[in-house]
Amino acid sequence: MLEDELVYVLSKDHDLNQLIVVESRQSFRFVRKLKSRNCQPRLFPLDRIPTFLKEANNSISVNPLRLLLKFPFFKKIPHNIIEKSKEKNKEKSIVVVNTLKLGLHADCELLRSEIYQNIKKMAAFSHGILIFYGNCGHSLRNTEADFKDLHCSLYFLKDEKGEIVDDCISVALGGNDNYAEVMQSGNGTGMIYLTPMWASSWKEMRMESTDTSDFNERFLKKHYRKVVKISNEISIGSEFDKNVLNYARTFDMSIAEMEGSMEIASRSYLNAKNDVCKEAVSD
Description:
Strand order of the largest sheet: 2-1-5-4
Structural class: alpha/beta
Strand content: 15-25%
Number of domains: 2
Order of helices and strands: HEHEHEEEHEHEHHEHHEHEH
Low-confidence stretches: 61-90
Radius of gyration: 20 Å
Distance between the termini: 35 Å
Largest sheet: 4 strands, mixed
Helix content: 40-55%
Mean pLDDT: 83
Number of strands: 10
Shape: globular
């Protein structure tokens, strides 16, 4: 659900040496969005990435710095030693992104299981992991404790107060406090929040869901009256308008509009990256 935010922060990172995406059925849309932002990722099956990174590492004979983000992975590659005096502490990164299936949040146990499995797989070649999810119904609230013995650090999407965000809507609205304030502004009116990603994906998730409240027409029409349309910086325009209108008509809701934010995604990404960079310098 945070594809747009992830595409945005990656497209703004001009220090990348390479961008790698784990090849899977769910990665194709993500790759199209990256290319639309002039990012040219390389695709590899997950089981081939360690070999590729090892070969890349051997070819330049440097110690790798690794960071995984939803799970992207950063591997720091120093500049040519001749330029070391000029480029001190400036290093290039390789980022590997592993996108997971849409709609996992509908089943908290399944969501946690999928994320935990992927953390274990990618930790094999990572120094740090930034999990591009919120708490998602508290399903991930114990992640840090559960992986306390992991050799690489875990990082999370946090708001300005340092709190892990509740979910993707909290990310889009700029934090948990902003999310709570928006909900309270409804004065008891049931509101559904749609980001561009939600709006473009709800039909697909509805077809695959097992009658969850997210897509239960009877439940939604009874308890919700308004759709809050949350725009962002890379997915705006007629397609978003059409998708939101389609949702609102399907469930008999009115539409309100709000401006979203990439701030939490950007800050969390940079904080994680900078922390791993410091570790690399100390190594």
